[in-house]
Amino acid sequence: MRVEVDEPTVDDSRSAPRYGLIRSALRDAILQGRAEPGLVLVEGPLAQLFATSRVPVRQALTLLFEEGLISRFEGRGYLINPEGLDLAPQRVTLTRQLLGLEPEEELIDLRPLGERVYDEITACVSTVMVFGHYRLDEQRAAEHLGVSRSVVREALMRLRDRGLVEKEPYAQWLAGPLTAREVSEDYELRALLEPQALQQTAASLSREALLAMLEHIARLQHDPDSASRADIDQLENDLHNRCLAGLRNRKMATLIRQCQSPMNISRIFHDALHMGIDQATLVEHRLVIESLLHGNADSAALSLRDHLLRARDRTLQRLKVLSVLPEPQLPPYLTRLS
To answer: At the topology level of CATH, where does 113-178+326-336 sit?
Structure first.
């Protein structure tokens, strides 16, 4: 029997506590049928999706459980089960799309202000650098984003660490251009470093996480043309970030991260031409994950190297296509130099 629980008020002032906002977003998705019954909700992955700690997620799940919208089962987490049925648990990688949060454009952004500014500038710079050379004005960015200049500067310093922007002696921030030569050099370095890193991190990867990655790949292989931007992001993040997350060599990790900017080309290509994921990419990703599941780190490393070299050729072809497309609309803080 469902217990009636007073619903927290959610308004633009964001006065409601975080657990109330999370609970409200999940509650609406469940009641409106956007989140599929049987999905397993676990604190950790939900905390990552909502960019928060586990505490408010735990409180939100407790309220949903008391209301009867989710249920416990013989396993970790909760089951989406508003009708109290005997459902088989679906343990898959949780995404906004799976939870019915993707269409919710008004979903309140729970990230700290600095993270939101960083992500917005990152998305903008990552897109335009494919089309040319740009100058970024700190003050105009602060005014456009409605934040202090120090928040913008901190975001830009993080982008510099990733190799996406550079600062000239006269305090000008510059982005791009991402040339064919730079793409080739980045992939050559990645083909050397990422396989070595994977051999070091393979033992720390959980079987549960790898199975979830494999299931995501299988779903995309079934219908690659339906792949969303979120699917592409997750596919790349699973292999090139999550699988390498346990790397202890910080200098190697930093260099790998700085060489990964060409991955943005696939995202821009998808957004510009609305194309899905090619089967070759999915097969290459699958070979790496399956080798890891079989405990063969050496084979996984070789498959990853092969994937990166093939991805380099695909990326260079996409760069040629993007070069003839019109430049995207620029925010007021960016000025094209060439």
So the answer is: Arc Repressor Mutant, subunit A (1.10.10)
| DSSP state, residue 9 | P
What span, in angstroms and rounded, lies between the C-alpha atoms of 151 and 142?
Answer: 8
Rounded to an integer, what distance in angstroms lies between the CA atom of residue 327 and that of residue 302? 38
The pLDDT value recorded for residue 104 is 46
Over residues 40-78, the pLDDT tens digits come to 999 888 887 887 777 788 889 999 998 899 998 888 889
What's the one-letter identity of residue 62?
Answer: T
- Cβ neighbours, 10 Å, residue 168: 9
What is the Cα–Cα distance from 15 to 143, expressed in whole angstroms?
25
Q: Which of 167 and 75 is assigned the larger pLDDT?
A: 167
Domain residue ranges of the chain, discontinuous segments joined by +: 1-110, 113-178+326-336, 180-321
pLDDT bucket at 188, cuts 50 / 70 / 90: very high
Question: Residue 217 half-sphere exposure, CB side, CA atoms within 13 Å?
Answer: 23
C-alpha angle 278/279/282, rounded to 5°?
100
Q: List Cα–Cα distances, 181 to 11, 105, 175, 212, 313, in angstroms.
A: 49, 38, 16, 35, 12
The CATH superfamily label for domain 180-321 reads: GntR ligand-binding domain-like (1.20.120.530)
Confidence class for position 119, pLDDT limits 50, 70, 90: confident
Mean pLDDT of 248-263: 90
* Topology, domain 1-110: Arc Repressor Mutant, subunit A (1.10.10)
